[in-house]
Input
Amino acid sequence: MLRIGVKLPPRITQLGEFVADVTALEAAGADSIWLEADAHPPVEWFIEVGALIAVTHRVGLGLIASAPASEDLIAALTAIHSLSGGRGLAAHRSGAILHVAAGRWAGDEAEPWAEAEAGKDRAAWREVLDGHAGSGRAGLVVAWDPRIVDLLRNSDAEDDRSDLLISTG
Output
């Protein structure tokens, strides 16, 4: 079964909203939550990582790097993996593939994952999932979208708006 991860926006402006989004993603069934990782992240980034660790209990906590991991990122991943009870994940990009490993920066032998957009509605979301289901990828990381919590919770539900018909007669 395809695991679903959600990549959060690169910069968080409101920590309270960030925490609410993260806890909603975990409750909705996301398998992992990802942050893009700069080679030398700013101090605020470490605060975001600490908040992720503090408010989650089940989801994998991942870092995505486009370049080889710096000493700062290796130390950050080690801390995340240790403080979260072994939930730290790391991924590096190689073309269109994310190579994902638990607790370490992985080489090309790690699990292959893909990145995608959620789509404009449930039908598009199901197409995204179906399109990647037989691809041989272990997981899919989708970019943050305000609709993603609903899509994760109700991915099989139809877009039924009979409530609108009732309210308008």
Remarks:
- The chain has one domain: 3-168.
